Amino acid sequence: MEYQYPFDLDWSTEEVIDVVAFFQGIEKAYEKGISREDLMAVYKRFKEIVPGKAEEKKIFKEFQESSGYSSYHVIKEMKKSESNSHIKMN
User: Fold this and answer.
1) In the chain, where the domains are located
2) DSSP conformation class of 87
3) What Gene3D superfamilies does this protein map onto (predicted)?
4) 1 pLDDT higher than 70
5) Fewer CB within 10 Å, N or C, the chain?
6) Concatenated DSSP letters of 66-79
7) Class of the 13-84 domain?
8) What is the pLDDT of residue 83?
């Protein structure tokens, strides 16, 4: 797929890389699955960069419009799943 990842021009290069890693985790959840622990790690880092709920929703919406993948639903599934589980979206 050809699309761009959402990012803020105020972020450092490291922060942009970490946010891209988070969205790659979302992609994995849809395409082949990802461990809950791996997803939690990239989401935790994402939340350090984007702590506000409103900004998170805006970025999630931009990514979904661009990619078709719902970050919200993946994170919701992650939060309700058991430890050591595998997240695979349909």
Assistant:
1) 13-84
2) E
3) BH2638-like
4) no
5) C
6) HHS--HHHHHHHHH
7) mainly alpha
8) 86
Instruction: Write the secondary structure of 21-69 as one string of H (helix), E (strand) and C (coil).
Output: HHHHHHHHHHHCCEEHHHHHHHHHHHHHHCCCHHHHHHHHHHHHHHHCC
- Mean pLDDT, residues 39-63 taken together: 97
CA end-to-end span of the chain, whole Å?
17
| Tokens, residue 26 | 């979302």
Residue 90: the pLDDT is: 85
Q: How far, in Å, CA of 41 to CA of 62, rounded?
A: 22
Residue 70 has pLDDT above 70, yes or no: yes
DSSP, collapsed to helix, strand or coil, labels residue 19 as helix
DSSP 82: P
Q: What is the pLDDT of residues 73-87, one digit of tens each?
A: 999 999 999 988 999
Residue for token pair 């970490």: 18
Give residue 83's identity as a one-letter amino acid code.
S
